[in-house]
Amino acid sequence: MDWSKAKTILIIAFIITNILLVYVLLTNEKQVETTLKDSFVKDVIEILGRKNITINTEIPREIPSLNTLLVEYETIEPYEINRDFFNGEGKVENKSLGIIEISYRDEFITITNNKTLLYTNDSIGEKYSDLDENKAVELALNFLEEKKYDTSDMKLSFIKRDGKGFSLEFTKVYNDRYLEKSNTTILIDSSGVKKMERMWLNPIDEGEKHIYINTAPKALLSLLSEEETHGKTIGEISLCYYFDPAEQDFVDNPKEAKRGKTVPAWRVLFEDGTKIIIDNY
Asked: Which of 152, 167, 199 is the last residue before a domain boundary?
């Protein structure tokens, strides 16, 4: 008996068996996932409609999973902020535990726990009579770059008219997906940038393990208990990385969190700017 030939046949048979097994498992998984079927999606749309929640976008049809990310907060150093915003000429004051204020003429900055920054500009005077969305985006990006912020890792995720100006939200992106809650919001009117709020996250390491969550159609049903979404229209649904220290190991004092791991979540953006993060499993 040719044992060499027999061994080769056994190996080929083993490979074919494994391929068939994987195919069967994947086929069964698709058959079992009823929440992605047209009938289920149709029911979800109808049920949400009872709360006047309408959907003006495609509902993702995928079995969602993402690997974890180890992220840390961007550390805000008062000295560097004073230098980048006011050429070091601002007045720095420690107001209370964890709160530092920097002022220069009509401009003010509040830094909280070295993690969040609030900038306001009280100056008055029209500079941009031709302000529109495109001009607002240009001014916002120029402002960020002037203040030494890297704009290559952010994406304009929302813009809307706010009074006589525009409110813009930029969100951190990683692997072409949003990283929440890592946002920079800017308010602009004809006098320029009036306000900026920033809390930023930076990825440190990417985990190998993938975490699965509910499909988008099933996850959307949780909006029924969110009264702030009733009567509104969904404009975007996307899978994102999500970090919330209050939901991890920092329940007692989330303000002390400096780093942690993200989980996959559904990012649901409504046309009026309301944003809901759904991370149920």
From this structure: 199
DSSP codes, 109-156: EEEETTTEEEEEE-------TT--HHHHHHHHHHHHHHTT---TTEEE
Boundary (domain end) residue, out of 144, 176, 199: 199
Residues 124 and 55 placed together within one structural domain of the fold: no
Query: What is d(CA 262, CA 239) in angstroms, rounded to the nearest whole number?
Result: 12
Q: Is 45 left (phi over 0), alpha (psi -120 to 50) or beta?
A: alpha
Q: Which domain holds residue 137?
A: 75-199
What are the tokens at 11?
A: 């190996």
Total domains present in the chain: 2
CA distance 214 to 62: 10
Are residue 101 and residue 174 in the same domain, yes or no? yes
Q: Which of 87-96, 123-132, 183-192 has the lowest average pLDDT?
A: 123-132
191/81 same-domain check = yes
Its sign, for the CA torsion 79, 81, 86, 92, is negative
pLDDT tens by residue, 218-272: 999 999 999 999 999 999 999 999 998 776 555 456 566 788 899 999 999 999 9
- Answer yes or no: are the C-beta atoms of 141 and 184 closer than 8 Å: no
Is 55 domain-assigned?
yes
Give pTM, 2 decimals.
0.82
CA 192/CA 147 separation, integer angstroms:
14
**pLDDT tens-place string over residues 170-182:** 999 999 999 999 9
CA 279 to chain centre: 12
74 within 8 A of 116, measured Cβ to Cβ? no
Same domain? For 99 and 184 the reply is: yes
Same domain, 150 and 218: no
